[in-house]
Design goal:
Blueprint lengths: L8 E5 L23 H13 L4 E4 L14 H6 L9 H11 L4 E7 L5 H14 L4 E6 L4 H5 L9 H19 L7 E4 L4 E3 L30 E4 L4 H10 L2 E4 L4 H17 L8 E6 L2 E2 L3 H13 L3 H12 L12 H7 L7 H13 L4 H11 L6 E2 L1 H13 L5 E4 L6 H16 L18 H5 L5
Parallel strand pairs: 1-2, 1-12, 2-3, 3-4, 4-7, 7-8, 8-9, 9-12, 10-11
Antiparallel strand pairs: 5-6
The structure holds flavin mononucleotide.
The site of flavin mononucleotide has 22 residues, from strand 3 and helix 12.
């Protein structure tokens, strides 16, 4: 049960040029300067004005390919994944333009050595005064493997087992320096106390011996995030994650997933209250419910049927001959199970396709519009009420907000929904207490003292 003083977490996922809405890159209300630092720093200032917990950047290490190994569709249509700036580099610009906002960076355990992960993230963590979160991914595609000289992506179980070792090693590297190891004692000529710095245990597990060339994080260690939803993925999340990023089509699915995650965290010996479950939402807002539905219709009207079918085929690795718009979406999804590499995402697509008896055309439009993420369409007041109900009923600990248009949808959310959440006492009005660098760290925000 929530107490009357509990507040939700809000993370903004920023994924240009497409967002989760495929036409974002060519929409008149969107910015197109996503290769410039100003795009991210302006977004971040808006989020900080709204007291968001974090700006989160997803990542992939290859341009997504179709069933024949071609990247043509992705690049021609500006599909999701056609552009990815390095998240850590991008967030370094955001760090210098903000004071409190968390900085969530995706880094792959399959293709990045543990030492480099630990070093890159802890560097940004120091530079930002303890505001970094690591979105732990194992990568999903052969295209990514090809960019690192491998023929295939390793099987999922193998990737998760390796990720367990990598995460443990990164934590050991981060914790190798005791908090008081950097002494800077001029009179005794002691810079740091080597007795308070240790190597990675177990001989570094063949991954990294340590120690790292960086002292302990201002927030103890960066926050860990994860988005796996398969059986193995959930166990991984329950073992490591402070924040779990989820996809769920209905409130009931959210409630079930959260219950399952909390049970697994408890079984792994952790306090379930220290694992925040944040499902993705893509709100569409208008001054009234009718106006919000017109805004949604305008987003739909910008889609082109051939284009969205081509994107769906690319996503599912289906051939063009399978794209009869009137065929059953469920059949298509079942034939291509496993194509996206994300079990949680595919489960959501299949459940929704079944429940709503979708055709291939419906699925293609839903994918291009919102990726079928949970979508409140209403006035800011009503959307705030809906989010509060989900929070209060134990369906979520907060939300990953995936705005359709950068940055107009985020401005609308911050100007309209945030004040309504605050009025209901369900979201912070300021970032509050001072931490080591003059601002609360991200860890303190997710795990308040005594919380
Ligand atoms: C909402 C969501 C966001 C994700 N973001 C990324 C990402 O940015 N980069 C990536 O490589 N994988 C991403 N993934 C993939 C997951 O991290 C995970 O590797 C994938 O879902 C496979 O695990 P699973 O089958 O256990 O769900 C995401 C998955 C979901 C559901």
């Amino acid at each position: 049960m929530r107490s009357s003083t509990d507040t939700m977490h809000l993370v903004a996922m920023v994924n240009p040029p497409t967002s989760q809405y495929s036409e974002n890159w060519r929409h008149p209300l969107s910015r197109q300067d996503w290769l410039s630092a100003g795009f991210y720093t302006d977004l971040a200032r808006t989020l900080e004005r709204g007291c968001f917990d974090m700006l989160f950047l997803p990542d992939a290490l290859a341009v997504p390919e179709d069933h024949a190994g071609s990247y043509d569709t992705t690049l021609r249509t500006g599909g999701k994944g056609s552009i990815y700036l390095d998240p850590v580099v991008t967030l370094a610009t955001v760090a210098s333009a903000t004071t409190h906002l968390g900085l969530g960076a995706t880094v792959s355990t399959t293709f990045t050595p543990a030492y480099l992960i630990a070093r890159k993230l802890l560097s940004l963590d120091h530079l930002s005064g303890g505001r970094v979160a690591w979105n732990i991914v194992t990568s999903t595609t052969d295209a990514e493997a090809h960019n690192f000289g491998f023929e295939h992506i390793p099987p999922k179980d193998e990737r998760y087992s390796h990720a367990d070792e990598v995460v443990q090693t990164v934590l050991d590297l981060w914790e190798g320096w005791q908090p008081d190891a950097l002494t800077l004692d001029g009179p005794s000529r002691q810079f740091a106390d080597p007795a308070k710095v240790s190597r990675v245990p177990d001989g570094g597990r063949g991954l990294s011996r340590g120690p790292l060339t960086l002292p302990r994080s201002p927030q103890g260690r960066p926050v860990l995030m994860q988005a796996g939803a398969s059986d193995r993925g959930l166990d991984f999340a329950a073992r490591w994650a402070d924040v779990v990023f989820a996809v769920a089509a209905t409130a009931e699915d959210m409630r079930d997933q959260r219950r399952e995650l909390r049970a697994r965290a408890a079984a792994a010996g952790r306090d379930p209250d220290r694992v925040a479950y944040l499902p993705a939402v893509q709100p569409v807002l208008g001054p009234t419910r009718a106006a919000a539905h017109s805004a949604l219709q305008e987003l739909v009207d910008m889609l082109d049927l051939d284009d969205v079918l081509a994107k769906l085929a690319r996503l599912l690795h289906a051939g063009p001959e399978e794209l009869d718009p009137d065929l059953s979406a469920e059949d298509l999804l079942l034939r291509h199970a496993g194509a996206t590499g994300s079990e949680g995402f595919e489960r959501m697509l299949l459940d929704t396709a079944r429940r709503e008896r979708m055709t291939v055309q419906d699925l293609a439009i839903g994918q291009a519009l919102s990726q079928l993420h949970y979508q409140p369409v209403n006035s800011p007041d009503a959307v705030a009420e809906e989010l509060c109900e989900l929070f209060d009923s134990g369906a979520a600990d907060g939300f990953v907000v995936m705005p359709a248009l950068y940055q107009s949808s985020l401005e609308q959310f911050v100007n309209g929904v945030i004040p309504e959440l605050q009025r209901r006492g369900r979201f912070r009005r300021s970032y509050g207490s001072a931490g080591p660098a003059g601002a609360a760290t991200l860890q303190e925000r997710f795990h308040p003292a005594g919380g």
